[in-house]
Specification:
Elements lengths: L2 E5 L4 E2 L5 E9 L2 E13 L2 E11 L7 H15 L2 E9 L3 H9 L3 E10 L10 E5 L2 H21 L4 H7 L18 E8 L8 E11 L5 E10 L8 H15 L4 E7 L3 H9 L3 E10 L1
Parallel strand pairs: 5-6, 11-12
Antiparallel strand pairs: 1-3, 2-3, 3-4, 4-5, 6-13, 7-12, 7-13, 8-9, 9-10, 10-11
Helix pairs in contact: 3-4
């Protein structure tokens, strides 16, 4: 049997200025699966992504492996220097395939259905950001994210490109009053001691299949002098309270696989892994 990859349609542009194309996986000319390749610019480089990879007929015959390798070759010919693939947590076979093909797990996506607003521990209080502090905090957050990207396997150049290079876009163009954004800091009960840490939540990252909004933790930081005292947990509880106050019942986040302390925290709070991100250089 001969397995081949054939375009299902033309290449189309992406919102980020790249291109994407869907392909059919054929066995002797008969469709047995499909996938999508996408390439988007990251600074001076192109990064590839494989998605929608599904074998509909004849699983266990190496067709998934062929599809992934063929997709990599497409992305390589498009000029991509790296490829990422997100694998749903339930897709254990696909996760095994990613590892077998040399992909390294970099990050987890986790989410939780929010039901009741949790109480905050005694002795703490939440306050909005002081607008005068926001720019410095965002700069520190971006630098911390860059270091985490390098720790997850990216090069310095790739990490800088992912964080916007020398002139990153402003994620909160209206500052602390940006619609749909929650920026809070944690202090002592009387507001005098602290800040213990900060939380940044996007109240509607995207819509879920049922049309309900999915909020996202964009950043959570515990001040260095106050780590190891449970403030990370309190900040997450604060994020949940803010979501429920806005009528949002689903909260998600990304966490780097190497950050085992954070992974354990989110797991203890009831967050479940929904997807694993794997990547490798091309």
């Amino acid at each position: 049997m001969t397995t081949t990859l054939r375009p299902e349609g033309p290449k189309t542009p992406t919102a980020a200025g790249g291109r994407t194309r869907r392909w059919l996986i054929l066995s002797n000319g008969h469709p047995v699966g499909a996938l999508r390749t996408t390439a988007d610019p990251q600074g001076s480089q192109l990064w590839g992504r494989i998605s929608e990879l599904e074998i509909t007929e004849g699983r266990g015959r190496g067709r998934g492996t062929f599809g992934a390798l063929a997709a990599e070759e497409v992305l390589r010919n498009w000029g991509c220097t790296r490829v990422d693939v997100g694998v749903p947590e339930a897709a254990t076979t696909a996760r095994g395939l990613a590892v077998a093909l040399g992909y390294t797990e970099r990050a987890l996506s986790m989410s939780k259905r929010l039901v009741a607003a949790p109480a905050l521990p005694a002795g703490v209080s939440a306050r909005p950001f002081d607008p005068a502090d926001l720019d410095d905090w965002l700069a520190r957050s971006a630098e911390g994210y860059r270091r985490s990207l390098v720790g997850s396997g990216l090069t310095e150049e790739q990490a800088r490109a992912r964080t916007g290079g020398d002139d990153p876009p402003n994620p909160v163009p209206q500052g602390v009053d940006t619609p749909g954004v929650v920026l809070r800091r944690l202090y002592g009960a009387d507001g005098g001691e602290g800040p213990y840490g900060s939380i940044w939540v996007q109240l509607r990252l995207r819509d879920l299949p049922d049309g309900e909004p999915l909020a996202w933790v964009m950043g959570v930081e515990v001040s260095p002098d106050h780590r190891g005292r449970g403030h990370g947990r309190t900040l997450m509880l604060l994020a949940e309270r803010e979501c429920l106050a806005a009528g949002v019942h689903d909260l998600g986040l990304n966490v780097f696989t190497r950050n085992e302390v954070a992974v354990r925290l989110y797991d203890s709070l009831g967050y479940e892994v929904t997807e694993r991100l794997y990547g490798k250089p091309l």
